[in-house]
Amino acid sequence: MNRPHRGTIHCIDARVIDQQAWPDNQFIIRLHAPACARSATPGTFVHIRCNPDIPMRRPLSIMRVSASEGWIEVLYKVHGEGLAALAEARPGDRISVLGPIGNGFRPAPDRPRAVLIGGGVGIPPLVFLAGQLRAAGGAAPAVGFFGSELPFPFALRDPALPLPGVPAGATASLALVDDWGIPARLASGAGFAGCYRGFVTELARDWLASQSPAALAEVMVYACGPGPMLRATQRLAATFGVPTQLCLEEFMACAVGGCAGCVVPVMTDGKRAMKRVCVDGPVFDGASVYPGAA
Predict the structure, then answer these.
(1) pLDDT for 138-173, tens place per residue?
(2) pTM over 0.90
(3) ω before 100 within 30° of 0 (cis)?
(4) For residue 175, what are the domain limits?
């Protein structure tokens, strides 16, 4: 039987290149994993053994890669003993990595205007996608909206790129994305300077409402974050008549399709089917996951 993921998931003895600590126990770790870096796409993830004494792996979204230099980066927040152990890793340490796993975002030629919406540790796949869009070029611009209730684990700055249609109080951007020529704005309920005070979907709503029907006809929304945010994103997109691709976050055990512990109901050909987030996703058509969100 042909299995589409056979031969595409690598088991890598990855070397830690660097680990950066950010406020509130957030970390970005860079790993030398050439085979993974060559085949990863935005929305795919890796399954990491955080410590040899902790057998259960942790699924982490890939945030950036360099195929030429052979590294990948992931962002995580310490929660539990596994990720606490990973936070102790130092350059030169070896970590077992399975990846890349899953089906990622699929750029749509008929919907070239990408709207990226990320929340919390759901931001990394959108950063990866932003980098891919920048590398691909093209005349249709992408825009990004990112939300967090913790301090953002990225360098922030006043945006160099204008973004008409957003509230006046949204005056901060991710420096990395801004450098790529993609305008972005931030949201938080925590009152961080330069952030829209509210949900990231509310910030995106203001921008979408400022767009013409012709512009909306070219929009595809790509999103990743907690379930309530994704459901709100689907409702928002349905209001404006634009399609979505949603990257789901789900608890996983094996992460390679064997245990079926991460299944979610998805509408397929008009019927409800149970799909594995790890290998059938994690990216799904939003209307198939939340068909009643309109």
Answers:
(1) 656 799 999 999 999 999 999 888 899 999 889 999
(2) yes
(3) yes
(4) 113-248
